[in-house]
Amino acid sequence: MKHFINRQQELWFLNEQYNSTTSSLVILYGRRRMGKTSLIQEFVRDKPFVYFLATEESQLQNMKEFAKQISLLNDQQPFADDISIETGDANWDYLFQTLADRVPNQRLVLVMDGFQYLGKTDPAFPSHFQRIWEKHLQHENIMVILCGSVIHMMDAQTLNVNSPLHGRRTGQLMLRQIDFRYYHELFEGLSYKDLIEHYAVTGGVPSYIEVFSKKTGMPAKSEGRSRSHLLAKIGRHILSKQGFLFEEPFGLLQNETTDPGACFSILKSVAAGNNRISEISADLHIKQSLLPKHIKTLIDLDILELEVPITETNPEKSKLALYQIKDNFLLFWFRFVYPEKARLELGDIAPVLQKIKKNFASNQVASVYKTVCQSEMWLLARQGRLSFTKLGPWWNKNESIDLVALDSLGDEIVFAECRYQTQPMDVDVFEKLLYKKNAVDWKNGSRRERFVLFSLSGFTEQLQDLAAGHDDIILFRTPQETV
């Protein structure tokens, strides 16, 4: 697997901070499995650096490890014998002063990975590090990266306005999932349809992609073989008790949230079709007033999202707002794995795989395909074929449109429908879209209307003939087959 696809912008940002003429303090964060450490390794590979990985051990043990890493800088000798960390004579101030004294002529990168654990072990450490930064580091030729994966801890210790480090950082970077448009580089040789199905399971998380992209020797030429190949990987890595991802949601929520039980219950409820806060409250028998803090945590983690019709002018007060699981893997897991957990604990995988085989396309891939189409819409905009500034689904009490794009700087509106199905799209889809678009209240009377139809199975001759006579209709099958 190519580790740094879709990470060029992040590397550019880190190098820009490195090339600064003054000291830099960067906060790098994001939930686990996003490849933060791999990104750091790629960034520092041609630079002088000190890499320190903090743990939940005592401050003494962390100081010992930090001292060890400093001693490796430029092949320096270990600390003098009269400095004894074991007896407590050394402290963080001494260690950072020693580091400052050993900064080479070339700019030094100091990486403090797992930074949140230092503050967890000693809540005063962020304040202490503020003083260390001002006393020992900010006037040195150094770039400091504070890296962490427990987002709520990193926020409290480094990003929040009340954090001692809030005004000291020179930049921050949250590492997110890899966008679908890079999947053809990650899974070479797969068809566009196969890429979408892999995306529907792995969801752009680098560690999940790496597991599913490993070669197994099984050919994946025909559609049937490819689907069987994917199902085999699902069985091995997700449904098996020994699989890497069998317990992943439990570990993720345990590691990233302050109340993993509440967050787990919310995701389970949303996956079951309870998309409004009132429905979640009724399903879980929890007061509505207790839900927002947990929902915010899940939104901050890029796991949950609040969707409103794209034309809403006040999204926070929309009565049509719906909560959706944004993370494809967690959506898959809560739909197909969690309801069968008891059976899977007994090793009874075959019937679960059969259920996935039967419902995977309609229950999982069809909804994920709409997010793929969103990505392709932005691609069309970058190519200059469309013009818009906002993009998302639209619905009211009676109708819905998969995607609507609005140009807030002009008058163009784009209506799009997405069909993940086995039959070619026919003119009836377009005719129904013509009817539904009249319910969208946006610059009525002055807007310029365009249409994009997405269909993995192509289009009937009648629809192709219709589109051929209208320059306001785009037919999109794959990026290479767009009319």
Q: Layout of helices and strands, plus pairs?
A:
Blueprint: H1 8-18, E1 24-29, H2 36-44, E2 49-53, H3 59-71, H4 92-101, E3 108-113, H5 115-121, H6 125-137, E4 142-148, H7 151-159, E5 171-174, H8 183-186, H9 192-202, H10 206-213, H11 223-239, H12 248-256, H13 260-271, H14 277-284, H15 292-300, E6 304-307, E7 322-325, H16 328-337, H17 341-345, H18 350-382, E8 390-395, E9 400-406, E10 412-419, H19 427-436, E11 448-455, H20 461-468, E12 473-478, E13 481-482
Parallel strand pairs: 1-4, 1-5, 2-3, 3-4, 10-11, 11-12
Antiparallel strand pairs: 6-7, 8-9, 9-10, 12-13
What do these coordinates show?
- The protein is α/β, with parallel strands linked by helices.
- The protein contains 20 helices and 13 strands.
- The protein has helices spanning 8-18, 36-44, 59-71, 92-101, 115-121, 125-137, 151-159, 183-186, 192-202, 206-213, 223-239, 248-256, 260-271, 277-284, 292-300, 328-337, 341-345, 350-382, 427-436, 461-468, and strands at 24-29, 49-53, 108-113, 142-148, 171-174, 304-307, 322-325, 390-395, 400-406, 412-419, 448-455, 473-478, 481-482.
- Strands 8-9-10-11-12-13 form a 6-stranded mixed β-sheet, sandwiched between helices.
- It is globular, with a radius of gyration of 26 Å.
- Mean pLDDT is 89; it is low at 76-84 and 217-224.
